[in-house]
Amino acid sequence: MDLFRGRGNAATSASVRAEPPLTASATSSVQSATQWSNGFVTAGPSRAGVAVNEQAALSIPATLQALRVLTGVFAMTPLHAYQRTDKGRKPADNLPGARLFRDDPNSHQTPFGFMELAMADLMLAGDFFAYISRGAGFQPRALTRLKPGTTVIAQHFDRQDGVTLFYDATLPDGTRERFPSRDILHVPGFTRDGINGLNPVRYARDALGSTIATSQHTADFWARGGKPSTVLQSEQRISREDKAEIRSDWQRLYGGLSGESVAVLDQDLKAEFLTHNMQENQMIETRQFQVVDLARIWGVPPHLIFDLSRSTFSNIEQQSLEFVIYHLGPHYTRFAQAITKAFAPEGHYFEHLTDALTRGDIKSRMQAYWLQRQMGMANANELRRLDNLPEIEGGAGSDYWRPSNMEVAGQPTANRPGTMPGADGDNDPEDDDVEE
């Protein structure tokens, strides 16, 4: 067994392959500013002049809702293992790897909590990493999430086998080591090199920064009690010291939320208030556009983050279906294939079951059930299990129906099994042989 490749047969190659040594990452040339930073990943300042990082991105309500929807719906979708057979596929949820994602990924997380966190790392950091703990027989027994920024990928190229990946990672106990790919579950997001996922917060920092700056400007405006900026004018010359004192007194007496007292001015001072026309500044339109822009960044339909300006009752259901197919579908595939590569034996694979997300309203669902029942595609018990209903005892639940007005293609009616005697339609077969 080639442990570095996950599967293989040593007898298939006569040459001996020399694996690169698994040495500590101190001897590696792979370095990163966030490699050993306890998971803090910064995206740097934006053009709007505000710092953009994970915490700042999550402070935007539209971002928080988008990630809640993405991670929550992704985590609630069950992940099943299957085995390929000559007759199709059959469930294989008894695999050790399947148990981790169905029942117990580790000692402190539920499957939902683990997959929700995995999806959050993918969306906010671009990659998800987990350390695979193995027990007897090299079987996986626990998954431990590695904080973003604490794992760096190193490559080794071999002309015979191509690129082999190693992971320089810091474990939760503080140890720092280089691990082969068999010990790390890695799910990259959208990538440009096939190895490292792109960090959405870093690449979209200008769009996120403008939203944060707009929100801060709005908050500052209302922190002043919704009062516009003030200019104090005088025809007399005022010294620098007097200007500072006048400004301090005005801010103390009339600035902020409590500045409601009547201003009494001397030294021929006049107060002029700079107006803020929110309509001309298109403040509401700007914030509305930013919500749609955030929906583009995180890949969610706008109506799921409560922007219903272009939604109708007739297309909401179709948009929800498109959300599962076009928005969550790629994430389902990348996770399922990464888990298959790490845990599935030959001839097995993992797949998310999205039936509960794509079912329509009750009327449409019942019509689909009725068509399947009439066509003999499903029996009553199979359809009842889809709605978590108990089975019906006896043939009423297990029998398959067949339309009585259909024939088997290419088979004559007289020779069809179960045809009544008498090809001419007479109920008495002996009459066919009677000579007049």
Automatic annotation (TrEMBL):
Gene3D superfamilies: 1.20.1270.210, 3.30.1120.70, 3.40.140.120. It holds the Pfam family Phage_portal. Residues 1-30, 396-436 are annotated as: Disordered. InterPro entries: Phage/GTA_portal, Portal_HK97. Residues 425-436 have a biased composition (Acidic residues). This is Portal protein, HK97 family, putative. It comes from Sagittula stellata (strain ATCC 700073 / DSM 11524 / E-37). The lineage of its organism: Bacteria, Pseudomonadati, Pseudomonadota, Alphaproteobacteria, Rhodobacterales.
